Amino acid sequence: MTTRGFRLDQDNRLNNFAIEPEVYVDSSVQAGWTKYAEKMNGRFAMIGFASLLIMEVVTGHGVIGWLNSL
After folding, report:
1. Cβ contact 7:15 at 8 Å
2. What family does this belong to?
3. CB–CB of 8/1 below 8 Å?
4. What would the pLDDT profile of 6-64 be if each residue is shown by its tens digit?
5. How many alpha carbons lie under 13 Å from residue 18 in its C-beta half-sphere?
6. How far is it, in rounded angstroms, from Cα 43 to Cα 54?
7. Beta pairing partners, 3
């Protein structure tokens, strides 16, 4: 039973702790080509491409030329 944000147990004792959400088990397999993995891969690729462009603008050399100068 719930009354005004407080929960009473079966013996009508007050439980003034926070009401916890229902617990569930996600039994689906989360390996391989998931949507989350694809989003993260795309985001890291965009960050890498943008950093290469910034490096080329700052140094004045392309990536291959910069690697040859090392």
Report:
1. yes
2. Belongs to the Hlip family.
3. yes
4. 667 777 777 666 667 788 887 776 777 888 889 999 999 999 999 988 988 888 878 77
5. 3
6. 16
7. 6
Q: Which two tokens stand for residue 50?
A: 């943008």
Confidence of residue 68 (pLDDT cuts 50, 70, 90): confident
**Which residue type occupies 54?**
I
SS3 54: helix
Q: What is the rounded distance in angstroms from the CA atom of residue 2 to the CA atom of residue 8?
A: 6
Report the Cα–Cα distance between both ends of the chain, in Å, rounded.
71
What does 26-52 look like in DSSP terms, one character per residue?
--S---SS-HHHHHHHHHHHHHHHHHH
